[in-house]
């Protein structure tokens, strides 16, 4: 695919991107990926009510980057959410019960599972790239056959996912066993979004993790592509099958130079 025409940023957009303080790995997308022919416009902006919903889930997404144990944060929310403290204004975290907090077997990738008591949501959050070693997995772009035999997956992402897969499954099963779960939410930023797609792909194709009637929601921010066209087609088929049994919602939030994830369903 030829490189798409570059579009100038507005002054507001320039200020927003210049204000980013955390390390991001958009440079990997710029080097390794092709440009999408689709240009984001005002028609792609989510409605205000959806923006509020995504902002709430985004608090859990960002928390996955924390080097402080999730248990400590949840136990000390009253102190940590005040002005000028680490999770200032993160009101969505209140009344959350920790199910599991883990580090993967490959590159120490962090993730956690919590239960939101007031919404009855089980939330799975997976960190994006936060170390140089994880960055090496990001650029391991050779293709690996997916277990479904329905396409191929990014080798580095698959290796990282295999390192957290059991922890994810155990956390989801334990959360569903211990609490009344009305919705399962899977979220991640950047490479964590790629992990979220691989997890949701498993949840859609396997019958031993969650029931076919469980409402599912995928919320990813700046997620790169995880597989080839055949895998994307398989994803679309699974999503359509799932929607016949129960609610399924997919939100993929994009910003300038973010990678392209699986196509919208």
Automatic annotation (TrEMBL):
CDD domains, per the entry: Lipase_3
Keywords: Disulfide bond
Disulfide bond found in the keyword field: yes
Known catalytic reactions: a monoacylglycerol + H2O = glycerol + a fatty acid + H(+); a diacylglycerol + H2O = a monoacylglycerol + a fatty acid + H(+)
InterPro entries found in the cross-reference section: AB_hydrolase_fold, Fungal_lipase-type, Sec_MonoDiacylglyc_Lipase
Alphabetized Gene3D superfamilies for the sequence: alpha/beta hydrolase
Limits of the Fungal lipase-type domain: 123-241
GO process terms (BP): lipid metabolic process
Top-level taxon of origin: Eukaryota
Keyword Disulfide bond set for record: yes
One Pfam entry name: Lipase_3
Family: Belongs to the AB hydrolase superfamily. Lipase family. Class 3 subfamily.
Name of protein: Fungal lipase-type domain-containing protein
Organism in which the protein naturally occurs: Paramarasmius palmivorus
């Amino acid at each position: 695919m030829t490189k798409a025409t570059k579009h100038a940023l507005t002054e507001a957009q320039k200020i927003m991107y210049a204000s980013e303080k955390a390390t991001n790995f958009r440079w990997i997308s710029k080097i390794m990926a092709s440009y999408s022919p689709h240009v984001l416009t005002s028609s792609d902006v989510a409605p205000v009510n959806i923006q509020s919903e995504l902002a709430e889930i985004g608090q859990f997404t960002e928390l996955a980057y924390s080097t402080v144990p999730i248990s400590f944060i949840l136990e000390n929310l009253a102190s940590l959410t005040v002005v000028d403290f680490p999770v200032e204004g993160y009101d969505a975290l209140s009344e959350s019960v920790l199910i599991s907090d883990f580090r993967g077997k490959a590159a120490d990738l962090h993730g956690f599972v919590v239960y939101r008591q007031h919404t009855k949501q089980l939330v799975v959050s997976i960190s994006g790239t936060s170390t140089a070693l994880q960055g090496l997995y990001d650029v391991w772009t050779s293709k690996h056959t997916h277990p479904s035999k329905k396409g191929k997956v990014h080798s580095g992402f698959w290796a990282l996912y295999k390192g957290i897969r059991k922890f994810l499954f155990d956390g989801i099963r334990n959360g569903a066993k211990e609490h009344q779960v009305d919705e399962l939410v899977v979220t991640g930023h950047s490479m964590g979004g790629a992990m979220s797609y691989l997890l949701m792909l498993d949840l859609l194709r396997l019958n031993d993790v969650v029931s076919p009637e469980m409402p599912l929601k995928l919320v990813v921010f700046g997620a790169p592509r995880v597989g080839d066209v055949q895998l994307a087609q398989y994803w679309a088929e699974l999503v359509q099958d799932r929607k016949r049994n129960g609610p399924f919602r997919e939100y993929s939030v994009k910003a300038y130079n973010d990678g392209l994830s699986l196509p919208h369903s």
